[in-house]
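Now produce a polypeptide, keeping tokens residue-aligned:
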Amino acid sequence: MSVLEIKDLHVAIEDKEILKGVNLIMKTGEIHAVMGPNGTGKSTLSAAIMGNPNYEVTQGEILFDGKNILELEVDERARLGLFLAMQYPSEIPGVTNAEFMRAAMNARRPEDDKISVMQFLKKLDKQMALLNMPEEMAERYLNEGFSGGEKKRNEILQLLMIEPTFAILDEIDSGLDIDALKVVSKGINALRGENFGALVITHYQRLLNYIVPDVVHIMMDGKIVLTGDADLARRLEAEGYAGISKELGIDYKEEV
């Protein structure tokens, strides 16, 4: 079992504090969901975990199996076993999906144990079939000219191929229709098990109908203010953030 622990995390962007003391412990075998209003710091949390240099950690620790990873570069964190599926994946012209994924897989393997072409293609065919993706997607340049739904499926394909220890999924449901949402959820659920954990950042209960979380965290004003099981997400759907904040005595102004 591996453990990802976030302790008293404070993060600033251009001297503006966004995260104001986030505490969270996630273990492999668990799916955690983070929900909260716009601007509360959910995406900042994902960026800080992966080491985005635009986000300054001013206080706290991020521990991977007890090791503070704040000094590690993004690629070092990825090799350690962290994976970020971004809300807006970047386009990389000149690099095919297949080339990118094979390189990413080999980066986590010893020099004398690189995955063979045949092993790679066999796994790629299997996972693309699971996600109902056409074979030609493998030879297209990474995210170039992809629709929003294709980018999201492609992120999940990378997740299935790389098999990280922990995945951070930042609004992976954003802009998806119900069919695409089901396919993306199917891919994430396929990895559930004792060697995998995920932090799912979302605004909506509908995603959590397909990826049922073990733990739900409500985030407001840069902090986790309430933690519970899957019922907490359903309660949030019924009461809204205004209802939750009133109960907790938090000043919350609902967006119009």
